[in-house]
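Illustration 12: Hypoxanthine phosphoribosyltransferase.
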Amino acid sequence: MNNDIEKVLFTQDQLNKRMDEMAVRLNKKYAGQEPIVIPVLNGAMIFASDMIKRLNFKLTIDPMKASSYAGTSSTGKVKIVQDVKSDVKDRPVIFMEDIIDTGRTLKALSAEMTKRGAKSVEVIAMLDKPETRVVDFHADDYGFKAPNEFLVGYGLDYNGLYRNLPYVGVLKQRVYA
Ligand code: 5GP
Ligand code: MG
Ligand code: MG
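Figure caption equivalent — predicted structure in token form:
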């Protein structure tokens, strides 16, 4: 599997350090509150499980699954494939996402939670690809800025594979061929 990786962009160590930093702000901000944390499946499962362990306030974990992607290019449509079970009304919502690319997914999901009456909505992402944004959307915080390349690892897949790599990397060209 590692033989399919062209280069490693972010190591487990780098990710751990950034998650420690990101948790400090969240622990201050949500002290005394009970947010609903929404990992966006499947991509965010690794990042979210690591982040959540760093949080020391009361919270509910309630994942969502959205789909807007096939292969390596965006189709532009956002569909809720699995919804939260919780009533978000008057609760703070924290989305945890693997990577913000076009911005469509989290713009749509955030708007939906606002519509349902969430007390507040924020989005934290492991990675942010600012160059490929097609809608006006910013994460409240993110781990690292990522280049405009197709990335795998740490939850990010190519056709369902490579999510278990303990780092974020770029696939070799021959893997797509
Ligand atoms: P959006 O374009 O709506 O911001 O992002 C939708 C989803 O596309 C992301 O949550 C992620 O699952 C997927 N995605 C975007 N860029 C990449 C990438 O470089 N690698 C992988 N594996 N998935 C990506
Ligand atoms: Mg995702
Ligand atoms: Mg994917």
